[in-house]
Amino acid sequence: MKIAIGSDHAGFPLKGSVLEFLRKEGHEIIDFGSHNTDPVDFPVITKQVCQAVLDNEAERGIMICGTGVGASIAANKVPGIRASVCHDIYTAHQCVEHDDVNVMAIGAQIIGHTVANELIERFLSATFSTSEEFRRRVEMLHEMDNSNQK
Ligand SMILES: O=C(CO)[C@H](O)[C@H](O)COP(=O)(O)O
C-alpha cells in the first residue's frame, strides 16, 4: 500500500521505527517530515499528508505528534479526510471498517514502537464495510464537508 506519513518534532522520535516497520512490510512511503527534532507546527505537516491522500498519491495517511490529538484535529479540518487518534487495537481497525478513516493519528508521547506498529498493521489491513448504514453515515460526512466549504 502507498502510505503518506508525517510527524512534528514530538512525533519524530517514533517515526523512525514506524518507517522501518512499514518498509519491512513492503509498503511504499512518502515521508513529509519532520526529519529532526527542531520545532515544527503539526498543522503544516498534517496538511501535506492529507493532500497526498486526497490526490491519490497515497491510499492512507499516518500522522505522529506528541499525543495524536493536534494532528487529528488538523486532519479533520481538511474536507475529504476522516482522521482518528488510534491508541487501541479495536479503534485502529473499526475506524476504517465503520467510518472509512483515511488518516490515522498516533502520539509518540503516549505509545511505544511495538504498540504503534501493531496499531498501524491493524489500521492498514482493515477495509471499509459494505453495509448500507456505514456507507450512509460516511456519505453524510461528505455532505458536511461540502456544506462547510460554502
Ligand atoms: O501533541 C501535540 C499536539 O496535540 C504536539 O506534538 C505537542 O503539542 C508539541 O508540544 P511542544 O511544542 O511543547 O513539543
Automatic annotation (TrEMBL):
Active site: residue positions: 65 (proton acceptor), 98 (proton donor)
Keyword Isomerase listed: yes
Keywords on record: Isomerase
EC number in record: 5.3.1.6
GO molecular function terms attached to this record: ribose-5-phosphate isomerase activity
Segment forming the signal sequence: none
Biological processes, Gene Ontology terms: carbohydrate metabolic process
Gene3D superfamilies: Sugar-phosphate isomerase, RpiB/LacA/LacB
Coiled-coil portions: none
PANTHER family tied to this protein: RIBOSE 5-PHOSPHATE ISOMERASE, RIBOSE 5-PHOSPHATE ISOMERASE-RELATED
Entry's family note: Belongs to the LacAB/RpiB family.
Name of this protein: Ribose 5-phosphate isomerase B
Species, as recorded: Halalkalibacter alkaliphilus
Top-level taxonomy: Bacteria, Bacillati, Bacillota, Bacilli, Bacillales
The encoding gene: rpiB
